[in-house]
Amino acid sequence: MAKAPPDPADSDACYRTALRALSLRWHGQEELRTKLLRRRFDRSAVDEAIMRLDRERWIDDERYALSFARARLQKHFGPDRIVMELRGLRVDPAVAARAVEAAVADDPGGDHLDGLCRKKIRSLIARRGVAAVFDEKSRNKLIASLLTQGYGFGAVSLVVDARLRELQRDNEELRIHAHDQ
Question: How far apart are CA 31 and CA 34, in angstroms?
């Protein structure tokens, strides 16, 4: 026998539904509100459940945003993209910016842009050879790819240029070493 849907005005049922969602992962307040409204709970029941969850510290946009930012940094997303995604989840822009700043500061040695750049260069070399990395079209594609990950243009340009100089220097050293033998 199928379970009857909860009464849309039942704030306790709404609260329990929210707790089930929070048991799976953190949610921002507005994200959770949207989810509950989609489940067809009345706005008043949702507001009451959200207030109760907030009082009990089940929801905290600061904690949610920081957790989200840390997870996205680990997936090599840049700060700009993470802030944009948090804003898309209706997290206050100031909260989003602080969370990303804190996540970056909490990540010692986590130079994700450099690591991602190196990974993309290795992939390009594997597909098209070392010479392809140095052509302007490939450089621009590499930069565009890193920009779409949410890193700023200045930082991307510096890292790409540094990695390409390093690769060129290493290739020249290999040629000289091979020539000497």
Answer: 5
